[in-house]
Amino acid sequence: MVSHGMQASDGGDGFLAKSAALTGFSEEELRATGMSQEYRAVVRERAGADRYRLFVEEERCPDRADEGHGPREARAELADAVIHLWYTGSWPGLDGAAPFTVSARAYAAGLVWRAFGGQPPGVGPSGFGSWAEAPGDVAAGAGAAR
After folding, report:
1. What is the pTM assigned to this prediction?
2. d(CA 68, CA 73)
């Protein structure tokens, strides 16, 4: 399904830089999830090589305010899909394709859990009653002062 042997020429650094700009997490934080190569492969496969290349090479992130029809709208749709992928570990689908969860590991690595300082349900040894406790250090999420 997805090739995991992506080369640097496939935009690994560009993909991480664009993902960091879109998600609010640093490239280092994204790399630390262990999902960057797998996500890059999913995006490249599902978006197609040409659309992926344009997305990675674009100088700035698509601006929703000046969104129109055509190529800009397609880039914004891909940007939304990449954000969704990083935060949830699932691909929302493009152009009518079915959405899917990349893997159990991707679900557990979703940025949504870090953003609010929580743990993914059903993944960790949080123990009975853990839901009654306040989440951990919320400052560790996106946008925290570094």
Report:
1. 0.74
2. 6
